[in-house]
Amino acid sequence: MQIGRATDSILHECEACEADLIIMTTHARTGWNRAVFGSVAMGILYHTDRPILLVNPKAERAGEAEKPVKDPPLLIHT
């Protein structure tokens, strides 16, 4: 368990276990919310050379699997 900034803790754990892939969920915040709360996912993206899979949890809700999702899950490969 790490205590501290989420970005730093995640990066530390990825290094410690030699992760091949980082999988994270994202709130997909934009605008003021992103400015105020920041983005852990973007912090990870900018500070790692590992591939990252970002999943929008809204797409995973029960009953929405059949419906088109405005913001589908994202795959970002660095």
Give the helix/strand layout:
Blueprint: H1 6-16, E1 22-25, H2 31-37, H3 40-47, E2 52-55, E3 74-76
Parallel strand pairs: 1-2
Antiparallel strand pairs: 2-3
Helix pairs in contact: 1-3
SSE topology string:
HEHHEE
Assembly status: single chain
Helix content: 25-40%
Distance between the termini: 26 Å
Measured by DSSP, the beta-strand proportion falls in 5-15%
Mean pLDDT: 76
- Strand arrangement within the widest β-sheet reads 1-2-3
Gross morphology is globular
Question: What is the number of domains?
Answer: 1
The total count of strands amounts to 3
Helical stretch count?
3
Tell me about the largest β-sheet. Answer: 3 strands, mixed
In the predicted model, the low-confidence regions spanning at least 5 consecutive residues are none
Report the radius of gyration as a whole number of Å. Answer: 14 Å
Based on helices, strands and strand pairing, what is the structural class? alpha+beta
Features:
78 residues, alpha+beta, three-stranded mixed beta sheet, 3 strands, 33% helix, 14% strand, globular
